[in-house]
Design brief:
Rossmann fold; single chain; 20% strand; 11 helices; alpha/beta
Length: 280
């Protein structure tokens, strides 16, 4: 089990996300994508990452893992991961949510770290713009009971006008017990990349059915074992009535040719995509 220290948080703070939450977009460059392989730690970590995933796929029930795995997490590691992942999960289009309020679903919410970031983003936006007449309900749904319990225990709202609830649900199998267009906005992060084409189609069908205004998606953008990155998400969304209006490709941590910048070296440097799509 990896541990977190104050210095780990200090390292992430130096990435400058407090001043610019889109620092990863400005750091991205196609030449850097190629030059990341000059980094010895990148090569070693990538090889280890690929080997571990391939071994797990061959020896375990990989698909059932996402439903059944026990994933307890303490607050310190949860807070570190929330700040760490903020590099590649940018608040693209979140201002739309803050301006309108309403109901939001985070489908595949995991431990609720993205929900917490959205709560904090909207609360800060309302304070900065003196908005007092809006309310927001965020519903986090995940397949894994253990991670839903984490979210319930860890996510906190600083405002009575922002409410959060979490529960277990299966968008692909049983479907979700919500009316069409029940939610104004939807988010899904790190989910589509682990779904095959049939699963992805069912997931997007359900997500687009229950959301009526806008969608935010974060997804890995390059091939990895057990993964299904897609550079044609815009087409899939358009077929379901959503038009991509904002999109960024970025790397999963700041670029460096000598060493990985993540102090815990949790992953190699991978390509990621963030997009915002509006209902047509």
């Amino acid at each position: 089990m990896w541990e977190v220290s104050k210095s780990d948080f200090n390292t992430i703070e130096k990435w400058g996300l407090e001043k610019d939450p889109f620092a990863a977009v400005k750091d991205f460059d196609l030449v850097k994508v190629e030059q990341r392989w000059l980094n010895p730690e990148q090569n070693a970590t990538h090889a280890k990452y690929v080997a571990a995933r391939e071994e797990y796929i061959q020896t375990q029930d990989f698909d059932n893992y996402y439903r059944e795995a026990q994933k307890p997490i303490d607050r310190l590691r949860w807070e570190f991961l929330m700040k760490r992942k903020a590099w590649f999960i940018t608040p693209l289009g979140w201002d739309r949510i803050a301006k309108h309020g309403g109901r939001v679903v985070d489908l595949g919410c995991g431990d609720g770290d993205v929900v917490q970031r959205l709560v904090d983003y909207v609360n800060d936006y309302w304070i900065s713009n003196n908005i007092k007449n809006l309310e927001l309900l965020i519903v986090g749904i995940d397949l894994n009971k253990s991670r839903v319990e984490n979210a319930i225990n860890l996510v906190e709202s600083p405002s009575e006008s922002i409410k959060v609830v979490f529960h277990q649900g299966d968008a692909i199998g049983d479907g979700l017990d919500f009316d069409d267009d029940y939610f104004d906005f939807g988010l899904t992060c790190g989910v589509l990349e682990i779904l095959d084409d049939t699963q992805c189609s069912k997931f997007l069908d359900e997500l687009s059915r229950i959301v009526k205004k806008g969608l935010y998606i974060e997804d890995l953008f390059e091939k990895f074992p057990g993964g299904f990155p897609r550079d044609y998400l815009g087409k899939l969304l358009l077929e379901r009535g959503f038009l991509v209006n904002k999109r960024h490709i970025l790397m999963s941590e700041p670029f460096d040719t000598k060493e990985l910048q993540d102090p815990k070296k949790l992953w190699p440097v991978l390509l990621d995509q963030n997009l915002w799509a509006d209902k047509t």
